[in-house]
Write a structure and sequence with these properties.
232 residues, alpha/beta, Rossmann fold, 6-stranded parallel β-sheet, globular
């Protein structure tokens, strides 16, 4: 399962259900993070501090929140990298909001590298209660701070890894979190973000899955042989 809510639902019908959220291609992002330059030109021309978002600009993106935040932070610019998948009228009216359109996934590390802060500005709904944002670990892999709305999976993520993501419950908290996140961070904080992303890499996910499978096969072999394991 990719979120705790889905795991809980599946657990009603199965004895053993494991949670494996989406991972990140850590090596790919880490390689771009280590480069001296490489920020795309269309991002380079936007003045910092630059608040960035990658992904589809869909119906679950809280345009009212983003618009209100952009108005209260006229000194910051907001770059949304992804295809518009709904009416974006509420966003284009703000001069410091830039909709850059879709980009290939392989290009995303270069864009995230140019962000001062990465955001996950999703509305709270029954749908987003089940969402584990893939962009979360992509932001962290590049060492940048993350500000998100109060999503259950983000809360669970913080409970597991420490308060590595700033959670904002309303416009005021989002504004305050962005102001704080735009300040230079100590290197140990940056390193912690990167380490958390590494722990959530696809390599780490696959290793955990493999360990569970091997353990299950081991016990099945013992059951077949009529051997009682000390672990059961």
């Amino acid at each position: 399962m990719t979120s705790e809510k889905l795991r809980e639902r599946a657990a009603l019908y199965a004895d053993t259900v494991h949670l494996f959220p989406f991972g990140v291609a850590f090596g790919q992002f880490d390689a771009f993070r280590r480069q001296v330059d490489g920020v795309p030109e269309d991002l380079r021309v936007i003045p910092p501090p630059l608040v960035g978002y990658v992904g589809g600009v869909h119906q679950w993106v809280d345009q009212d929140l983003l618009g209100a935040v952009a108005e209260r932070l006229p000194d910051m610019h907001f770059a949304l990298v992804g295809p518009p998948q709904t009416d974006v009228t509420k966003l284009v009216r703000h001069p410091n909001v830039h909709l850059l359109g879709p980009r290939a996934h392989a290009e995303l590390p270069r864009y995230i590298r140019g962000f001062s802060v990465g955001i996950i500005p999703y509305q709270l709904s029954e749908y987003t209660r089940h969402v584990y944002p893939t962009k979360l670990n992509e932001y962290l892999a590049m060492g940048i701070p993350v500000v998100a709305t109060d999503l259950p999976e983000v809360r669970r993520f913080n409970a597991e890894h420490g308060e590595v993501v700033a959670v904002a419950r309303d416009v005021g908290e989002f504004v305050a979190a962005l102001r704080a996140a735009s300040e230079p961070a100590r290197q140990e904080i940056v390193n912690r973000r990167i380490e958390v992303a590494r722990l959530n890499s696809w390599e780490s996910r696959i290793a955990s899955m493999s360990a569970l499978l091997e353990d299950r096969l081991h016990h099945r072999v013992l059951d077949t042989m009529g051997v009682v394991s000390d672990e059961t």
